[in-house]
């Protein structure tokens, strides 16, 4: 479009809606506040990056502005606890009270990575992707990442209970293994990448 074409273009009207404030709380299993947790809120099924986010204060409280009358997905992520989420949360339009989300320690997965000959491989990036989380929430916020040590081992902690795929990424090759994470328990997976030698 040239400058002369712009003069002929139709006008564009942008209408901004007044949002609403949602105030919520993040607690640990003992009912104590969780400070420093990232809370992402977006319209149901949307990408969290287009929603609102906040970090909880020392009292575990957060406050975000969201679209009016929207049904929302809420994701809480923190390094010290497993990710937690609520799908399809609807706020009482006459209240600013938001959800109370209780996080948990989650489970852990011990990973061993080896080559086709059974030798350990060091320095392999390991990623756990939860399968029960809404697709829109598959992001670094709820994934856990580690890398193997010199013995080819790594541990992924604070995983949300439920099915995951543990992926090993080595020299542009990705191998994935399904695993079911159980709250408070440890699972084990062995991943073989590449051919034997």
What does it look like?
With 197 residues, the protein is mostly beta strands. It has two domains: 20-102, Immunoglobulins (Immunoglobulin-like, Sandwich); 107-192, Sandwich (Immunoglobulin-like). It has one helix spanning 3-8; strands at residues 20-27, 38-43, 52-55, 61-66, 72-78, 81-89, 97-102, 107-114, 125-130, 144-147, 153-159, 162-170, 173-181, 186-192. Strands 3-2-5-6 form a four-stranded antiparallel β-sheet, with no helix packed on it. A four-stranded antiparallel β-sheet has the order 10-9-12-13, with no helix packed on it. The chain has a three-stranded mixed β-sheet with strand order 4-1-7, with no helix packed on it. A hairpin with a 2-residue loop joins strand 5 and strand 6 (81-89). The relative contact order is 0.18. The mean pLDDT is 84.
List the helices and strands and how they pair.
Blueprint: H1 3-8, E1 20-27, E2 38-43, E3 52-55, E4 61-66, E5 72-78, E6 81-89, E7 97-102, E8 107-114, E9 125-130, E10 144-147, E11 153-159, E12 162-170, E13 173-181, E14 186-192
Parallel strand pairs: 1-7, 8-14
Antiparallel strand pairs: 1-4, 2-3, 2-5, 5-6, 8-11, 9-10, 9-12, 12-13
Radius of gyration: 22 Å
CATH class of the largest domain: Mainly Beta
The helicity comes to under 10%
The biggest sheet amounts to: 4 strands, antiparallel
Total number of helical segments?
A: 1
Q: Any low-confidence stretches, pLDDT <50, length ≥5? A: none
Number of domains: 2
Overall pLDDT:
84
Report the CATH superfamily of the largest domain.
Carboxypeptidase-like, regulatory domain
Looking at how many chains there are and whether they match, the oligomeric state comes to single chain
Label the CATH architecture of the largest domain: Sandwich
Give the topology string: H per helix, E per strand.
Answer: HEEEEEEEEEEEEEE
Terminal CA distance reads 60 Å
Helical/strand content category:
mainly beta
- CATH third-level topology of the largest domain: Immunoglobulin-like
